[in-house]
Amino acid sequence: MCRLCFAPQPAAASPWNARRAFVLAAGAAVAGPALAQVDVGNASGMRRLVPAESLENSAQQQYHQMLQQARAKRALAPEGHPQLERLHAIARKLIPFAARWNERARGWRWEVNLIASRQINAFCMPGGKIAFYTGILDQLKLSDDETAMIMGHEMAHALREHARARIAKTQATGLGLSIGAQLLGLGDLGHAAANLGTQLLSLKFSRSDETEADLVGLELAARGAYDPQASVSLWRKMGEATGGKEGSLAFLSTHPSGPDRIRELQENVPKVQGLYDAARRAG
C-alpha cells in the first residue's frame, strides 16, 4: 500500500477560523477507489431528498458556533495542546482514505478540535467537522489505536451521510409526502435541512447506521495503520464505563454498546488485518 500524505491548508478568513483549528482540504492527495474489505451495502437513497451542500453548510455554522461558545468559556484547546496534536496526527492518517467512501469528502475542509469537558463524547458533523471532548480521552484512558477507532467511526457517520438520510426520512414522513411529492418538494426539504443544524448533535442513528459506522471506521483506521483489535478493547471499555447504564454516558446514549457490537467487530477484524499489516510495513 502506498503511503499518502496530507498537508494542512489555510482556511478562509472568518471570525471563527482561529489558528487552533485543524483544517485539511481533501483532494488530490487521495488515491483512487479501492475495494472495501468490509461489506456495508449501499447508502440510503432517501438521502437524495436533502441537498448535501445545504446540510454541510448548516453543520459548519453550528460547529463554529459551538467553537465560539467553547472559546468564550476558555474550554477550546489551544494550538500545541498535546491531546489536540495527538488528534491531528490521527486525523492526518485517516482522512486520505475518506473519499473511498464518499467522493464529496475530496472537497471537505476537515477540522478537528478538542473541548475541555468531562463529558464522554466525540462526533463528526456533515462536511468533516470533528470534535472530541477531553472526558472521552481521559476517563477511558484511550490509546492512539482506540482513539482512531472512535474517530474513524464518527467520520464514517459523515461519509455515509447518516444524518442526511435520517433528516430526509424524518421530514418526508412528517410532511406525509408521496414519492411524487417528494420529488417535487426538494426545495422544502432543502430548507428544512438548512434549519436542522441545531439538531445534528442530538440525532440518534439506527442500529444499521451504527453497524455501518463501526465497519467503515474499522477499515479507515486499519488503512491508517491503527490496530483493528483496538475496536474490541474500545467497546469493552465503553461497556465497563457505564456499569450497565448506557444512558449515563453522552456517547453511549447515541452509540449503544453491547456483546452483539463487539462480536460483529471481532468477526470483521480479520477482514482488515491485511490492510493494517500493509500500512505498518509502509511506515
From TrEMBL:
The lineage of its organism: Bacteria, Pseudomonadati, Pseudomonadota, Betaproteobacteria, Burkholderiales. Its cofactor is Zn(2+). This is M48 family metallopeptidase. Residues 85-267 form the Peptidase M48 domain. InterPro entries: Mito/Outer_Membr_Metalloprot (IPR051156), Peptidase_M48 (IPR001915). Residues 1-36 form the signal peptide. Keywords: Hydrolase, Metal-binding, Metalloprotease, Protease, Signal, Zinc. Belongs to the peptidase M48 family. Binds 1 zinc ion per subunit. It comes from the Bacteria.
